[in-house]
Amino acid sequence: MPVQVSLLAERDIPGAVAAIQEAFANDPYNNWVFNKSEFDPKRNAVSLGLRCQWGMRNGIFHVAKEEGSDEVLGVACWLRPQRADQPPTWHDWFEGWRLWFNQVGMNLWYGRGGLNVKRYWIWKAAQSKAQSAVWTDPRGYYFLNIMVVVPKAQGRGVGRLMMEAVTDQADAEDMNCYLESSRDVPNMQIYERFGFKFAKELECDDDGTAIKLFAMVREPKAASPKAN
Q1: Which of 43, 185, 189, 228 has the most CB atoms around its CB within 10 Å?
Q2: pTM of the model
Q3: What backbone phi and psi angles, to 5 degrees, belong to 196?
Q4: Residue 17: what are its φ and ψ, rounded to 5°?
Q5: Residues 22-39: pLDDT tens digits?
């Protein structure tokens, strides 16, 4: 059956969460920022569900499914470009606080679930520093925040369909795209196929226990000239 890419709906969230958890089970960043002996999959699923709901309202959140099926084969979440000279809107402010309150309630109920808060903020500082250096276009960037394809669907072009759903839009708008990869091999080579290029290394170091992430930027492709 052909695979279709559509916007995430409420009914897709459990499948999207399961796909994300499967894809990131042995991710270098996850292994660094979570204490595996204390990791709580249920708490993590609730956290991801909250972020899915936030992404539905504030980002471009896609799922890939076979036609006629509800099984989620892939997930992609993009954040829209935000101009450097544009202050946050009341909507941005409200959504930020809404997510924060939901996360506080989750933490009160489930605890931290193995999250190393110190390392989380080390990562956020490294991310902010990298983005300040790399984001030179004042119009902003389409930011690929999540891209996963479940193992059984890999090699079927699912990732390409989800990627091009937004990169084609970025090309039409003459906008740059940005992502951060937690693996150099093979992820960076895969993203290079879609026009991304290495821009900066993010080093997250907690007193000698460190990981590296890799920031990549994609410049818009010029539109093909139309025949007269």
Answers
A1: 43
A2: 0.92
A3: -75, 145
A4: -60, -45
A5: 999 889 999 999 998 899
